[in-house]
Design a protein that fits this description.
Elements (H helix, E strand, L loop, with lengths): L6 E10 L8 E7 L6 E2 L2 E3 L6 H13 L4 E6 L4 E4 L2 H6 L5 E11 L14 E8 L12 H13 L4
C-alpha cells in the first residue's frame, strides 16, 4: 500500500449461520448493482467513528440487524485496489483498507435486506469453501486470506 489516504477505511464481516460451529456456512449477499456478484457485508468507516461502532452500524444498514456477537477479528488491516471502472466512481480512493470480523447472528436476529439504502437483492448462506466461486475477482485475494486465517485459527 503506497499511501494510506488513497485507501478508504472500511469494515467487513463474515457472518456465520446459526448452525455454526457444526456447519461452516457464511452469509453472502447479491449486490443490487452488479448482477451475479455476491459479497460479504462491508462499509466505510466515518471520520471519527470507532471500528466496532462502524461494524454494527454497517451491519444494520446492509442486512437490517445488528443483533450479533463478534467471534474473532482478523489481526490487521487488509487492502485491495478497485478495478478502473469502480475507481472512477470512488475517487479520491484507489481501493479500500479493511478490518474483518467473524460474526455470529443472535438467535432472535432477523435479516431484512429492505433497508433505507438497499445494497443486496438476495442473500444466502454457503459453505465457506464455496465463497470464492461467487465473488468479484478483485476481492478474491482478500477473501482468501481472511478465510484462510480463520480456518487456521480453527474458526472456519
Amino acid at each position: 500500500m503506497s499511501n494510506k489516504s488513497e485507501y478508504r477505511p472500511n469494515v467487513a464481516m463474515i457472518i456465520v449461520s446459526n448452525d455454526y460451529p457444526e456447519k461452516k456456512e457464511v452469509f453472502i449477499g447479491q449486490r443490487n448493482d452488479l448482477l451475479d456478484i455476491w459479497q460479504f457485508p462491508q462499509g466505510g468507516i466515518d471520520k471519527g467513528e470507532e471500528v466496532i461502532d462502524a461494524l454494527f452500524r454497517e451491519m444494520e444498514e446492509e442486512i437490517g440487524t445488528s443483533e450479533a456477537k463478534i467471534i474473532a477479528e482478523y489481526p490487521e488491516w487488509i487492502s485491495y485496489d478497485f478495478p478502473e471502472k469502480i475507481a472512477k466512481k470512488m475517487q479520491p480512493y484507489k481501493g479500500q483498507t479493511q478490518r474483518y470480523f467473524l460474526i455470529r447472528l443472535k438467535k432472535k436476529a432477523k435479516i431484512n435486506l429492505e433497508t433505507k439504502h438497499p445494497e443486496f437483492i438476495a442473500h444466502k448462506f454457503v459453505d465457506v469453501n464455496e465463497v470464492l466461486n461467487h465473488t468479484a475477482h478483485f476481492k478474491k485475494p482478500v477473501y482468501e486470506s481472511v478465510i484462510n486465517y480463520f480456518k487456521n485459527e480453527g474458526l472456519l
